[in-house]
Design a protein that fits this description.
Elements (H helix, E strand, L loop, with lengths): L4 H8 L8 H8 L5 H7 L3 H22 L7 H14 L1 H15 L10 H8 L7 E11 L4 E10 L6 H12 L8 E2 L16 E2 L1
Antiparallel strand pairs: 1-2, 3-4
Length: 199
C-alpha cells in the first residue's frame, strides 16, 4: 500500500524539514511500512555513489593513457605564464614593501630621535600679524563683508591660536547675538567656509 494523495499533501507542508520516522507517523496518524518510509526518505547518496565511482575510474584510465609531459619550450612557457599570473599580486606587494624599505628616510634614526621629537615641540614665538584689508556691504546677503589677511608664521602648532585671535578681532565691538561666517581663501583658489556661527 502506498501513500494516498491526501497523505502526500500533508507531508508536502513539511517538505522544508527533515522528519524522522516517528514524526512522519505522527503527522499521518498511522504506522508507515518500510517500503513507504523508503519512498518518503530517499537516500540519494546510494544513487550517486556508484556514479561517482564510475567517474573516478574513467578519470584514472584517461590519466594512465596520457603520455608524460616532456619539459619542452612550450611547456615551460605555459608554466611560466601560469606562475606569473598566480604570484603576480604577491610579487607586486613584495616589490612595494622593498621599495618603501629602500627609500625610507632616516629622519628619525636612533641617535637623534630624541632631539628630533623634542624639536617639534619647542616653544615658538608667535610671529604673525592679522590686518584688516577692506570692509564692504553686500546687498545680496544684506551683510557686511570684511577681508582680513594673516601674515607670518602659521603652522600646525599655532593655527588654533591664530584662528582664535582672528575671531576675536573680527567680533571686536559687535553685539553678543551677532552671527559670523569665516571663508578661507587658499593659495590654490579654493574657499572652504564655516556655517553661520555665534560668537
Amino acid at each position: 500500500m502506498g501513500l494516498s494523495q491526501d497523505e502526500k499533501n500533508k507531508l508536502k507542508l513539511f517538505s522544508n524539514l527533515k522528519l524522522d520516522r516517528t514524526q512522519t507517523e505522527t503527522i499521518l496518524c498511522r504506522q508507515v511500512t518500510n517500503q513507504e518510509w523508503k519512498s518518503i526518505n530517499k537516500d540519494y547518496r546510494k544513487i550517486f555513489t556508484p556514479i561517482a565511482r564510475q567517474a573516478a575510474k574513467i578519470a584514472a584510465r584517461k590519466q594512465q593513457q596520457q603520455p608524460p609531459v616532456t619539459d619542452t619550450v612550450q611547456a615551460q612557457a605555459i608554466r611560466a605564464n601560469r606562475y606569473s599570473k598566480l604570484y603576480k599580486s604577491v610579487a607586486k606587494e613584495a616589490a612595494e614593501a622593498g621599495f618603501r624599505k629602500l627609500f625610507k628616510t632616516n629622519i628619525e634614526d636612533e641617535k637623534n630621535k630624541y632631539h628630533f621629537v623634542k624639536s617639534l615641540f619647542k616653544q615658538m614665538k608667535d610671529e604673525y600679524t592679522i590686518n584688516k584689508v577692506q570692509t564692504h556691504y553686500n546687498n545680496k546677503y544684506r551683510t557686511t563683508i570684511t577681508d582680513w589677511k594673516i601674515n607670518g608664521e602659521v603652522n600646525l602648532f599655532n593655527v588654533n591660536k591664530v584662528i582664535r585671535d582672528l575671531v576675536q578681532k573680527i567680533t571686536e565691538g559687535l553685539p553678543d547675538n551677532v552671527r559670523i561666517q569665516i571663508v578661507l581663501k587658499t593659495s590654490d583658489d579654493r574657499q572652504p567656509d564655516t556655517k553661520l556661527l555665534t560668537i
